[in-house]
Amino acid sequence: MELLSSAFGNGEFIPEKYTCGGDDVSPCLLFLNTSKEVKSFVVIVEDPDVLESTFCHWLIYDIPGDFEGLPEDVPPATYIEYGIKQGLNDFGNIGYNGPCPPEGSVHRYFFILLALDIESTGLEPGITKKELIEAIDGHVITTAEIVGLYKA
Question: Count of domains in the chain?
């Protein structure tokens, strides 16, 4: 399985449009070479380069297993069509909030795709990353990721 973005390549800088310095919209993500065993997907975006702990920028889950990706600018709504749900990021918001590091060093942003063997996590929208990780424990078939860079 592969995760790609039409906005940036793995190890490349994320365009400002997808950050707090720009329009702060989610980039288009493409799910490639997925298996027929996949019942649903989860996408987590996180920054491990903060001082305290890994900072979560996006939780989106219960994405149907036959999806080939997500479009640009997924709205910041708890429920999205097709049963897709979004959780709370570490800004305290529902949906995507892009890179927004303090001025200085380059931060890495991991866009992580998890393929699950269940159609639904059974979770309501608005959950935390910890709750999501606990719910999918033992259900991850495979993962893929793309890393984008950003410096304010």
Answer: 1
On whether the pTM is more than 0.85, the answer is: yes
CA distances for 83 relative to 30, 60, 78, angstroms: 19, 11, 10
Nearest to 132 by CA among 140, 118, 121: 121
Cβ count near 119 (within 10 Å): 13
Task: Render pLDDT for 19-55 as a digit per residue (tens, 0 to 9).
Answer: 999 999 999 999 999 999 999 999 999 999 987 789 9
Q: Identify the CATH number of the domain in which residue 71 sits.
A: 3.90.280.10
The parent domain of residue 145 ranges over 2-150
Q: Residue type at 29?
A: L
Distance separating alpha carbons of residues 71 and 111, to the nearest angstrom: 14
Q: From the CB of residue 90, how many other CB atoms can be counted at a distance below 10 Å?
A: 19
H or E element: which one contains 135?
Answer: helix 129-136
